[in-house]
């Protein structure tokens, strides 16, 4: 379970297969590098020109030797091919009955829709010991879905679905990276895969279904603020992040990039969530993606109440 110098700890059913082949190729390359470079150095020293020595006659041909250095590498590359092809097929074809997640990549976040239609941003919650199939697409440029601990990677491409699958072997949080350069926010396009026990996964499903009984709208908004990743760009304490802080916004005047001034009321907040580029706050980049389709009407209400409470 411990990682190595080159690899993080394995956390999926196929990770070990990937690592075995990787290390076979790696140590094979090390072996031949040492053998060939070592022998070259020895020969250069041993047979260097010395005064009074006659030149050795040129060797022309040695059939057993040539057959040997052809057959051994050939056998090795065939082995690597068959081994790699089997692993590739195992990774490419998801097992029947896998839990399906739809993941949309866009500059610069991961939008996740789970098997029950629950949505989240930059977070994917899956059960342990169960096959999970990820159906990927991109809304703009090429991104790439990469989870090192699971040894899976797949490009997300506009106008086409691509898929990958994994089965996590232990619980915990695992890094999700975008591994295809996709613009200025590429390095920040990070996510987490939360692997939960079957029990916790059931609890999670209940928790994401909606507000808990008796929860106020503003409290539900506070939960969504984290779940929907508003927290990434908007602080609550006045700190300037990628987007303006929520502190003291509601009910006050906001200066927009187009020179106009607007009062931050319910409609302002709602429009900022659904069509962020229509009213960019002065001094900020128009980078926020729309949350249209990602939030239900009552969730938008909850966020409005939450922002109202940030005095
Ligand atoms: Cu998305 Cu890099």
Describe this structure in words.
The chain has 311 residues and is of the alpha+beta class. Strands 3-2-1-5-8 form a five-stranded mixed beta sheet, with no helix packed on it. It has helices spanning 15-46, 63-92, 198-208, 217-227, 266-274, 297-308, and strands at residues 99-106, 109-113, 119-121, 123-127, 131-138, 143-147, 152-156, 162-167, 172-178, 190-196, 253-255, 261-263. The longest helix has 32 residues, at 15-46. It has six helices and twelve strands. α1 runs antiparallel to α2, α4 crosses α6 (297-308) and α5 (266-274) crosses α6. A hairpin with a 5-residue loop joins β11 and β12 (261-263). Helix content is 34%, strand content 21%. It binds dinuclear copper ion. Dinuclear copper ion binds next to loops.
Main attributes of the structure:
311 residues, alpha+beta, 5-stranded mixed sheet, 6 helices, binds dinuclear copper ion
How would you briefly describe this protein structure?
This protein is an alpha+beta fold and 311 residues long.
From the helix content, strand content and strand pairing, which structural class follows? alpha+beta
Shape: elongated
Radius of gyration: 28 Å
Number of helices: 6
Could you name the ranges where pLDDT drops below 50 across 5 or more consecutive residues? none
- Order of SSEs: HHEEEEEEEEEEHHEEHH
Query: Which ligands, by name, code or SMILES, are bound?
Result: dinuclear copper ion
Give the amount of beta strand, in percent. 15-25%
Tell me, rounded to a whole number, the average pLDDT: 90
Gap between N and C termini, in Å? 48 Å
Largest sheet: 5 strands, mixed
Strand order of the largest sheet: 3-2-1-5-8
Helix content: 25-40%
Number of strands: 12
